[in-house]
Write a structure and sequence with these properties.
Blueprint lengths: L26 H48 L27 E21 L4 E20 L8 E5 L4 E7 L3 E7 L5 E7 L9 H19 L2 H18 L5 E7 L6 E9 L5
Parallel strand pairs: 4-7
Antiparallel strand pairs: 1-2, 2-5, 2-6, 3-4, 7-8
Length: 272
């Protein structure tokens, strides 16, 4: 009699993923593990590394400042080299001589800031550059009466039985000078763009503009009227000292030179 023994069959084990048939780990798995370890290390040591670099940078900056301070103390800056102005003598030439008989009766001292800019087109007109100057200008503007413009018949003295009367027909008051005060006039700033050409005449034009504008401002501020009133007061005192009882002023027109209808008079009581 034959006996058959049945034995259980061993299950076939499948290789795990990430391992070869010999049980060695898969290279892909090892790469992933290394990457995971690196990321964890960066997360842990990244802030500490940044603080370390910041600390090193602070030490370098502090060392540079201390070194600069020690260098400045040990080697103080040398004094600037002396500058000597040399004025070459040149002969004076009298260009013109003019006789004057001006009665200057009023003067204004005025100041103004001149902002003059010269716009230039460069690079075939594609770029606009500027050459600018900021001039602080101060000027003295004077006005009065030019007595050389008096004509025959402009001064008439009339005598009556009771008084002496003088009639003065004077030329219109005018601005004599509007000159910049060089002690108070200065260039505050001068800026020239990189693509602009520095103009040598810009300051001269700014000074001329300052004189022109200050002259107009003085007229608008009433310099002519003040000069007329002061001229009348001065001439009246002078004429009355000559024994004239009544003084009449008549003014010519500034443009045409013809006599204006306005007149001012003052009667002085005759002395007993």
């Amino acid at each position: 009699m034959t006996t058959v023994e049945l034995r259980p069959r061993k299950p076939i084990e499948e290789p795990l993923p990430g391992a070869d048939r010999r049980g060695a780990p898969d290279p892909t798995t090892r790469t992933r593990e290394r990457e995971t370890t690196r990321v964890r290390a960066e997360r842990h040591f990244g802030p500490l590394r940044a603080l370390g670099w910041l600390f090193v940078f602070a030490i370098l900056v502090a060392g540079a400042l201390v070194g600069a301070l020690v260098y400045r103390i040990a080697f103080p800056p040398a004094e600037p080299a002396p500058v000597t102005e040399v004025l070459e003598p040149s002969p004076d030439v009298v260009v013109a001589v003019r006789d004057l008989a001006r009665l200057e009766t009023a003067s204004f001292h005025m100041e103004r800031v001149i902002d003059l800019r010269e716009r230039q087109q460069t690079l075939f007109g594609l770029v606009q550059a500027e050459d600018a100057i900021l001039l602080v200008a101060a000027a003295d503007v004077s006005a009065g009466v030019d007595l050389t413009k008096l004509q025959d018949g402009d001064i008439v003295v009339e005598e009556t039985e009771h008084a002496r009367r003088a009639v003065l027909t004077l030329p219109a008051p005018e601005i004599f000078t509007a000159r910049l005060d060089n002690d108070r006039t200065y260039v505050h700033s001068r800026e020239t763009d990189a693509l602009a050409e520095r103009s040598a005449e810009l300051e001269s034009r700014a000074r001329r503009e300052a004189e022109r504008s200050l002259r107009e401002s003085a007229v608008e501020a009433g310099l002519i009227e003040r000069a007329r009133a002061n001229a009348e007061s001065s001439l009246r005192t002078l004429v009355e000292a000559l024994g004239v009882d009544e003084v009449v002023f008549r003014w010519k027109d500034a443009e045409s030179g013809e006599q204006r209808g306005e007149e001012t008079a003052r009667v002085t009581a005759p002395s007993e």
